[in-house]
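for the record, two folds in this file. i put them one after another cuz i was lazy. first one right below, seq on top, structure tokens after. the second one comes after a little note so u can tell where it starts
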Amino acid sequence: MRILSFNWHTPYLSMIAMLDHEFEIAPPNIETDLLGSWNEEMRPAPQNVTPILRQQMQDRIRQPGYYDLIIGHNVKDIAMSKDIKTPKLLVFHNKLSAEAALGNQPGIIDEYRKYVRQLVSGVYCVFISKTKRSDWDLPGAIIMPGIDVSLYGGYTGQIRRALRIGNSIKVRNLMTGYSLQEEVLADLPSLLIGENPDIPDCEVSKGWEDLKKAYRENRLFINTTIPPFEDGYNLGLLEASATGMPVVSVSNPTCPITDGFDGYVCDGAKQMRERVIELLDNQSLAEEIGGRGGEMAIQKFPMETFLEKWDSAINKAIEVFSTGLAPSAVFQPSADRRKKSFNKKMRTGRKNVIVCYTSYPPTTGYYIERAFRKNHNLITVGGKITDYVIDAWNLSNLKEKAKDHDIPTADFTVDIEDMLKKIPGGFDPDFFLWIETGLGGPPEGLDKLDVPSAAYLVDTHIHTERHIEISKAFDSVFIAQRAYISEFNSAGLDNVFWLPLACDPEIHGKADLKKEFDIGFVGSLTSDRRIALLQRLAEKMDVRYHRAFMREMTDFFCKSKIVFNNAIRNDLNMRVFEVLCSGSLLLTDFADGIDEFFEDEKHLVIYNDENIVERALYYLKHPDEAQTIARQGRELALEKHTYERRVDEIVKTMERLTGLDN
């Protein structure tokens, strides 16, 4: 097969070139002559790679059948070739959010995503990590990098110096963490290799062998890829690990290193600096840690898996082109939904359950765990929120600390095989439940479970297509938004159930506090409609906004005569149930399913954009009516809409999969 690609990333192209195809590599599709067809200083061109000029590419690409496949590494590649009748595949190396932030254009994300979605309608997409696919919100395969450790090795660490590698790291500081590197390495011996003309004393690699020599001889490698804009690893980290070089990394949800075992993962500059100095002063420790890092690279980034997945992606790209199917129609996740029966029936009464989610307090997973523990035996597994995520998600007002799980993991995405090794003896689970939190993907290796698996998906109104793909790996799926069940069914998923969100009376329950203001609102101010509605209310009454969580949020509700709620996409959100539980009057817009549970003017008050001010003023002038509605809403929430009731539904549904052992 003759494949055309473009030299945006020579090292990555050299890995793809390990496939048994002929590759012609053209300069990238940007208006510059600085980037050629291949960079010999980074990698020698393999025998099956032919660098060509831009004009040669333009002449050949228009010859019908000359190329069997076009592989792009930037949206510009697909835009340039959109009218060429040849199968295409696009690799996403960066996050859309990161590119928008680098260009100081965060407002373009939604429109640009729509443009790209249309552009790649007949193109098969490959993402180099789960976070990249999640950020772009497009269907496609996840192919994590592979590393051929046989090409590396020979670490000595004889030079007492830290190594860092990267191009344009200063201008891409929000991704690369350049300023953090400078803070960590101040007055310490270090070497920077890459194309960085704006950084004094930066060296440019003299070639592939020169780069490998730097990995072998320098004492340690420093990694500062910053969330949420970048993954916790890059090719430099993998190459250093494959050489046997120890890595000191900043904390990142997707960092592959286990702290203190095969590298160091640190929460900030101070801790990183301490670890760097420790390794600079202890060569034998560096050798020990680096050796285990090499084993990590073999286990988590095998080249064989990388090439197998690329073979599959190429075949699917051709299938998309030849059949006219949408890419999502041929995409299948690595662990497809298991259609199997279970030999072991579920025990009656109290269940043994494994619950998996990323730990931080104001999340559905936290409330579900609390409810499960009241009536069942539980083991929790997963990572926990980091300081970087707290900053990125604007959670600085969160006073409660994330707890450690019974089986803590370094990564937000849990590896089932690793988890099974850590389950305490004597704990025989009845089923496994993964709860979406927005951090990390679904567990890897679900096929290794011998008990039913379930997922609880909360934000399907935002990530519909991605959730449909995720669901194929589970035996049962619960979704918080009823409106999307038909889309799951159309995709061949029948074990999908509506499980609305709920309240936790111990956290969201009523407090005897004086009403201090007319309208209260807790939530994000990112929606133009939401802001406009609040501004209209504020013209006529006292409106207060607070960024609060957990009990502090509930107390704010209790001090509000009326609590305003606004759905993002017609979703029946957490706030509906939490406000009702607090005993304050809920003023909300319509959400799918709300009328199945609650009656307008009996349990809550439903507004539209035209009557919101009128409705709010009426109940401020008629406090007795408002109190009656709020009381009735609270009573119904406590009776039917607690997380304990939701857990009961989960258990009953899972029992039906296996039957009960009587």
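(here's the note) second protein begins now
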Amino acid sequence: MARVCPNCSTTNETGDICINCGNYIPREDLTNKKKDKKLKAEISGILSVSPKSIELTELKRNEVKETYLLLTRTDFETDRFSGTVKAPEIPGFKFKTETFEGLRNVINVQIEAKKMEIGILYEGFIEINTTIGEARIPVQLGISGDSPQLGLDYTQLQINLNKKEKSAIFNIVNVGCGTLMGTVKTKTPWLTIDDSSFSLSKDGQAEIVVTLNKKELNKIERRGRMSLEGSVNVETNAGDEEIKIILYLPPKKTLDDYKKYVPTVLISIVLIFLISVSYSTVKKILTPKEIRKTGLWGEMVGENASKKMTQLKWNPFSEAEKLVYTIIKPGEGQLCEIKMDTRVVTVINATGKDRPYTPACSPDGFMFAFGLPDPKGVSKDGKYKCINLAIANEQKLTPNVLTVFPVEGKAINLAYDPVWSPDGMKIAFVKTSSSISLYGDIMILDYNNAEPYNVSSLSEKKIHLLGKSPQWSPDGTKIVFEDLNKEIYIIEPKSRKEKPVITKLTDKDTYNSYCPRWSPEGDKIVFTRDLGKTMKDRGDIYIMDSDGKNMKSVIARADYEDLNPDISPDGKFIAFDSMKYGQEKGDIYIVGSDGKGLKCLTNTPDKNEKVPLWSPDGKKLAYLGYDEKGCEIYIIDMSDKNLSPQKLTSDGNEKSIPTWWDPKHYDRYQKLSSAKAGKNK
């Protein structure tokens, strides 16, 4: 909204500072503006609406305001009536439900002030259509820009003594005007605040350091690994906020704890001496602690992997091509596999029962990574609030739990969408704090360390991305993913101690981007681009270089929504699912990478086919098919002249997106893992 500088009369389109003289431009008084223009309600028929307007022009910056509309009859009859409500185009304004039916209908309204700009008066009408009349109810909303507003970059922090962390940092920002004054206090005895008071002008920022009180920590009795919860209170002239502090404690060491290591130490010394005599170069040896952490995964990678597999009678080249997925049955969840030579479904392990999570198959085909619920971490509504990352295989019934998320308190920690790096040494996965969101922190877990680390957050650059469906590049050096704002990013993870390099490839201000997939060589990324201008113009298939350049359209159809593209292993074709505007069921298509030769493979009006995935050899295409009986997994043999879909399952239960594994690609895994081992010598 344009504003005129009172000092030099220059018109400024954006910002609070004059582009000509540099003076501050005061924002418009919303109270006076509201009085100048009074919107009126319009009600027809025998419909009664109360209140007849919503006027909230003094909202706080981070406030979530709830109000309501009461719809009744004016003729005092007892017949129920129904209808719909339509929200005005105001940021942060929404209804909890847009349809109603009854004699007295309460329409709950929720307003998120943080989505609005300070100093702007937002106006519009609520459109109400019922069987007994219609109404237009005026709405005026705004955040006053004359007062300070409290802003925080974090509302929850953690200090992990297992990683030798001793403090945590958060920032206080004045996101309003005026002067924000306040203090930071804590009633938690094992926490201390270095600088407790602050005074901030507009956009001013204060860094607050929370440190541990060692004297008070020593008074706490520890029994194994445990976690504590504390809090820090920020009290200001613009409102108060509480920041939760979670402390992870290692078990307290005693003399008896160290005695049990004496035999191990002596044996290790003897072994090291013998090896040093036999070899001029001593290779890396895992400590007993690391060996306990690695478990099955640690046994299956690295220099001794081939020997260990021989002992277990495991030969990847004798294994059949297979699909791995999870399934939700009544009251239980299962991790399953289907081998292509027998088409028999095998249950590997139990999983969560609230929703199916896509599992991952290791490059050697021996292990499966998946989300395993902690039975102790269940909320009051019966949903899991703690799902750890675990691995299992066909020969070991008890899975190895790789992460240990806390189950105490109200915190939610869910691990899902795992994906193995091509060399088998790392697992990337998503960790979310929401039971309904598919977006979360992108984490990496090394095979020889049980503590995952975040690669989608750079605190010094104020970058904290929430993403989903991470995908490793073919050379294992990068991860591509879709973030919460429908943008595509690439992460180049370095190590636990080095900061990752994060690159944004798309621009959400111009279009939405999602469903990214690597090309076989890793030099291209195919994705869905959504201009979002009209409902008929959503979902076109695009391809770009891995650095975001040379973006071009592969297929763009005005009346179709094209999603979930996947490039064939030879790079010649792109498979995707597509739904015509106004219909509820889609089909599987393929098209050349140059956009030529579009072909529908399914054309089944009674089914909704989604998420096609090429097999590693490019000879088959797997996908999910939905009909009135439920969800099933299908494949199409691309060598079949008729391209007839073949049903692999017939139980009708909800399923995750399946994952392919092909033994012909095991030699690639051997080369990558051997190269990795050589670098670590």
